[in-house]
Design brief:
Keywords: Immunoglobulin domain, Membrane, Signal, Transmembrane, Transmembrane helix. The protein is mostly beta strands. It is built from 3 helices and 28 strands. The chain binds 2-acetamido-2-deoxy-beta-D-glucopyranose. 2-acetamido-2-deoxy-beta-D-glucopyranose (NAG) binds next to helix 2.
């Protein structure tokens, strides 16, 4: 049986009975466009279709095995094909099962491969390195890995891959192994003002125990500017244990050195969030000559406090009602006026939506807005007047309302009425 499942660039094949599967991704080899004369050089990238096969990825016992079939390389090796084969038993692909399930759920998997080179690595003759970045947008999951080509015993029949000029295995694949992985399980998150947040980033590498020195740097980019948030160098010493050298630029940011060394967890904690903490965070992990990154988006959100200027409304003359939406973030907020007349059940929009003040920004970066509605005396008692505020930090729009009350007859009119009734009464009696 040989079923190939192909969905949005990913198909999975089943091989072994011991709970391991091959994950096959369709990727693009991205290269800086060279040799394109007259195109001005630099900034041009070419994309060539490539296939990446992770061999023997461990899967849970409850995988629907009948859905999977083994990956079969082409029967005749083709030096034109870009077929990367990566063994992942070590360091292991974190959350490989999520990649497997991305297929079942028809999620889009993005995969890009590019040459990875540093000065120090160029001496190796036949050895090459590649950087692979895989993103499953809907799962908020992303991973960068560095692949190292494995030596191929060259014979006369050894084919060279045309584009990369690297020797191919008997089955026509480029044999590689993952030597360094940096990943994040949460690529984008929102957190409330003054709260704490954990920005998720981790790494894996085959050396056990973990490398003697790990360098981690967290940076924040926002609106074209960049800052360092924190950096940490951990060294593993035979005698002293873990030694961490931390440099904190943003007060209240921290990493756990113990977790860095024992679990490869380089997540960043930010406490007492401010509006200024919003932006794109870049987690860079370096071990020896290798560095890989993850990018995490942090949004700060704060719901508005909503209130009305009046507790009740009695209409003899037009009355101004104000609705305040205070101290929210980000900027976009909407205020609408609605009413429910005494005989209706569904709210309707006021024709005249009143006037909005301009947004005011407070010292802490939050915004306030208010709207003024003039309610005409023609609005009958029993009408419910609603101010509806919409903002991204409020799941659903927030309604605040009051009832138009029946005007109480003034004591003067009471008195006059009483007088008239009395006069009529006496008139009747005396008659
Ligand atoms: C790091 O540790 C935190 C809690 O200690 C956990 O929530 C997070 O998932 C871990 N992340 C990684 C990448 O291991």
């Amino acid at each position: 049986m040989m079923i190939e499942i192909f969905f949005f660039g990913l198909f999975i094949t089943w091989v072994h009975a011991d709970g391991a599967a091959d994950v096959v991704l369709s990727c693009a080899l991205v290269e800086e466009g060279s040799g394109l004369s007259g195109m001005g050089g630099g900034g041009l990238f070419t994309r060539t279709p490539a296939t990446l096969v992770f061999r023997d990825v461990a899967v849970g016992p409850d995988e629907p095995l009948e859905m999977l079939s083994p990956f079969v390389p082409p029967s005749v090796p083709d030096p034109e094909l870009l077929l990367f084969e990566a063994s992942v038993t070590s360091p292991g692909i974190p959350n490989a099962d999520r990649l497997l399930h991305a297929d079942c759920n028809e999620l889009e998997v993005m995969c890009e491969i590019s040459r990875y080179s540093t000065k120090e690595l160029q001496d190796g003759s036949d050895q090459a390195f590649f950087m692979v970045s895989i993103t499953v947008e809907e799962l908020d999951f992303s991973i960068s890995l560095i692949l190292e080509t494995l030596p191929v015993e060259k014979t006369q029949s050894t084919l060279m891959q045309n584009k990369l000029n690297l020797p191919l295995s008997q089955s026509g694949t480029l044999l590689t192994k993952a030597i360094f992985v940096v990943f994040s399980n949460k690529k984008s998150l929102s957190a409330p003002l003054r709260g704490d947040v954990l920005l998720d980033c981790g790494f894996k590498q085959p050396e056990i125990p973990i490398a003697h020195q790990v360098d981690v740097e967290w940076r924040l980019q926002h609106r074209g500017k960049g800052w360092k948030v924190l950096d940490m160098k951990t060294t593993l010493d035979d005698t002293e244990g873990v030694h961490a050298n931390v440099n904190v630029e943003r007060k209240g940011s921290s990493m756990n050195a113990g977790q860095v060394v024992s679990e490869g967890n380089v997540s960043l904690t930010l406490s007492a969030l401010k509006v200024a903490d919003e932006g794109t965070y870049i987690c860079t992990v370096s071990i020896g000559h290798f560095h890989a990154q993850q990018v995490i988006q942090l949004h700060v959100i704060q719901p508005p406090h909503v209130s009305l200027s009046e507790e009740k409304l009695i209409l003899k003359t037009p009355q101004t009602l104000k609705c305040y939406s205070s101290k929210y973030y980000p900027l976009d907020a909407q205020i609408e006026w609605l009413f429910v007349s005494p005989t209706a059940t569904e709210p309707e929009l006021f024709k005249d939506q009143g006037s909005l003040t301009s947004h005011r920004q407070h010292g802490d970066g939050t915004f306030s807005l208010s709207s003024h509605l003039t309610v005409p005396p023609s609005v009958p008692p029993g009408t419910k007047v609603i101010c509806r505020v919409s903002h991204v930090a409020l799941g659903a729009p927030l309604d605040i309302s009051l009832l138009v009350e029946t005007p109480k007859i003034d004591s003067y009119w009471w008195f006059l009425g009483f007088l008239i009734v009395t006069v009529i009464f006496f008139y009747q009696v005396i008659k």
